[in-house]
Amino acid sequence: MNRTACSFRHPLPASPRWPLLALALAAGLGLKLALTPGFAAAGDALQVTNASVPASDEIGINLPLLMTIKNDAAEADALLRVRCPFANFSEKHTVDRGEGAPAKREIKSIPIPQGKTIELKPDGYHVMLLQTRQKLVPGEAFTCTIVFQKAGTKETEVQISRTP
Q: Is 164 exposed, middle or buried (0-12, 13-18, 19+ CB in 10 A)?
């Protein structure tokens, strides 16, 4: 039996252009996914609205930052940090209810469940802005930076509201 060598030529020849072609193909696929409806980045699927803080004539006090967070992302997220120009620090809190009076407790992060809208309010999850640096006049607004675990950093306008 006579065997002959097969002269099969590889369809993708080694070429310095091949890595560029592969990169262009991958970039095109990434662009297609980014433009596909329903394929939103975590940052686009998380919305912060109704952010407010009560007005105050005092300096050096602690005030709650209230807001609504809607998470339309395919996975849960978490609020990690808040920075506001008029406060020295911020803390994330929850309210524990057990025997006796409710007690506020500092926590590492505030969970934002997938497909849910949560409201940060004084009797549940909320952010406390500590040691205010200035008086807060009703009707004014400022920008705070909110950092989420997956959605990243979001700049949010915060309204100064009249105290109830």
A: exposed
114-137: burial string, b at 16+ Cβ within 10 Å, e else: eeeebebeeeebbbbbeebeeebe
Is there a contact between 78 and 149 (Cβ–Cβ < 8 Å)? yes
Q: What tens digit of pLDDT does each residue of 32-42 get? A: 333 333 334 44
Cβ–Cβ under 8 Å, residues 116 and 71: yes
9 Cβ contact partners less than 8 Å away, ≥ 6 residues apart = none
Residues near 77 by Cβ (< 8 Å), separated by ≥ 6?
A: 42, 46, 71, 111, 112, 114, 148, 149, 150, 151
Instruction: Return d(Cα 106, Cα 108) in angstroms, integer.
Output: 7
Rounded Cα distance, 153 and 61, in Å: 26
In tens, the pLDDT along 102-160 reads: 778 889 999 999 999 999 998 899 999 999 999 999 999 999 999 999 999 999 999 99
Q: Please check whether residue 46 is in contact with residue 111, taking contact to mean a CB–CB distance below 8 angstroms.
A: no
> Is residue 136 within 8 Å of residue 63, measured between CB atoms?
yes
Beta strand pairing call for 110-112 and 117-120: unpaired
